[in-house]
Specification:
The chain is an alpha/beta fold and about 190 residues long. The chain has one domain (about 35-185): Alpha/beta knot (3-Layer(aba) Sandwich). About 30% of the residues lie in helices and about 15% in strands. It has a six-stranded parallel beta sheet with strand order 4-3-2-6-5-7. Strands 1-8 form a two-stranded antiparallel sheet. Strand 3 (about 60-65), helix 3 and strand 4 form a beta-alpha-beta unit. Helix 2 runs parallel beside helix 6.
């Protein structure tokens, strides 16, 4: 794993840091263990930025695997205007083998536009690793074949071939949170 300066921050502290005013916001308790959003060789910085914000909002861990199509050093993140990066637990991995070694117990759930089963049938659990491929080509066919029973997609009814990566992660992550019971009890905080 490539070290990234991040640490888990208690939910209350995160909420206090996030709010720019004192207006209460609807919240939910974090999932334990957290969900893991895994991006394999992401290429488009705004997608990863949006996904990072989503991870901060849901208490999920963001894993960046392989070669990135952009830089995530402090100067680059600051220049991009991402003011929530410090709220995200980000882990870097050289490849999927290193990711597997870092989280050997995580169940892999892979996503592909060519999947034959809906993400609604995935049976998500706390601690799952939600694995998404690069924007241009998705996950490698060999990986999808190797994990055929764990590959799911998001059905579309329009003529587009797939959703934007950040939108796909949002749809899947909130369904995973719902199935894991995290959204059953909300509160104002």
């Amino acid at each position: 794993m490539i070290p990234v300066k991040r640490g888990a921050t208690p939910l209350l502290t995160l909420c206090e840091k996030m709010a720019r005013n004192s207006a209460p916001r609807i919240r939910s308790a974090p999932v334990t263990p957290p969900l893991h959003v895994v991006l394999v060789e992401p290429e488009i910085p705004p997608n990863t930025g949006n996904i990072a914000r989503l991870c901060a909002a849901t208490g999920s861990v963001l894993h960046l695997v392989g070669t990135l199509g952009f830089r995530i050093d402090e100067k680059s993140v600051r220049r991009a205007g991402i003011d929530y990066w410090h709220l995200v637990q980000v882990e870097r991995h050289l490849d999927l083998a290193h990711f597997r070694n870092a989280l050997p117990e995580a169940r892999w759930v892979l996503f592909s536009a060519s999947a034959e089963r809906s993400y609604l049938d995935a049976g998500f659990r706390a601690g799952d690793a939600l694995i998404f491929g690069k924007e241009s080509v998705g996950l490698p066919d060999a990986l999808l074949d190797e994990h055929r029973e764990s590959v799911f997609g998001i059905p579309t009814s329009g003529p587009v071939r797939s959703l934007n990566l950040a939108n796909a992660v949002s749809v899947v992550l909130y369904e995973a949170l719902r199935q894991a019971g995290a959204l059953n009890r909300t509160f104002m905080g």
